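Crash report, auto-generated. Payload:
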Amino acid sequence: MEILNKILEKIKEYDTIIIHGHKRPDGDCYGAQFGLKDIIQTTFPEKHVYVVGETSEYVSFVGSMDEISDDVYEGALSIVVDTAIQDRISDSRYTLGKEIIKIDHHIPIEDYGDYIWVDTNFPSCAQMIAYFFKTFSNELKLTKQGARAMYTGIVTDTSRFRFRGVSRLTHELAGMLIDYGADIVEIDQELSKESLEMFKFKANLLANVKFDEGFVYAVITQEDIKKFNVSQEDAAATVNYMGGIEGYGVWVLVIEYETEIRLRIRSSSIEIDKLANMYEGGGHKMAAGAKLNSFDEIDQFLNDARKYIKQYK
Ligand code: AMP
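Recovered output after restart:
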């Protein structure tokens, strides 16, 4: 693929490369960021390679963010992974780089960057980085840390190989990462850790799930998060516990952050990305995110969700 050659050429050309991801990063964002850093740094030890952006406690075992000053961007290459739209890029300084590369697997809403590799057939962005590595494996190098990062990205974004986008290629590349040292038991243990606070929070959430017309939803406020003493990130992850209820193929978590209210929309039946588009959001067909301006908008959203889901019946 021409774009892969171009990306490698650009990586070779620049001495300083800064890798960005999205706001509120997840396992895949970390996996793609730290996987790519490992490949570049191990292959070209003389280059300066940085990973920047918000942190995630959940996948902190994958790597730590670098702190860099603005002048590092001078004459540098910015690579943004796993982020469909500019507004979601974590650390807006990516524009200070001389050129920008976008590598992403989300449904494209907006194009940015001088070189763009977007492919929605990949179920994770980490798999794209692993594919990039495999394509040039005769000249690129990778350590166990990089393999662990990408394997973590692949398993988290596919919910442990459960989603439709998972293919033979996914397993082949995951196998390749195991050959490079990714330890599946260690990674699973890291991802499965749960505190007592979190267990209680989960129980409370499940007790408060609302059953609507074809979908279920739950609302989490800042007060709930403080009361149960859980992290914002762990609270947001509870969206996954509402999936799989028979007759309710769509589930939504409405969660209040310090600065905004987010909708995390998931589906095992119909495509819901267009519902997310109605509320400043997007993502994937079966997993999308969006925003509400205030809790007053919940009723309107619930009405829109009912209408939207009805179309498919
Ligand atoms: P989340 O519920 O935040 O995990 O989002 C699910 C998917 O939708 C992820 O792949 C996100 O990158 C994407 N996403 C979340 N929020 C937005 C948004 N406001 N605009 C576009 N994509 C989003």
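Post-recovery validation: The mean pLDDT is 97.
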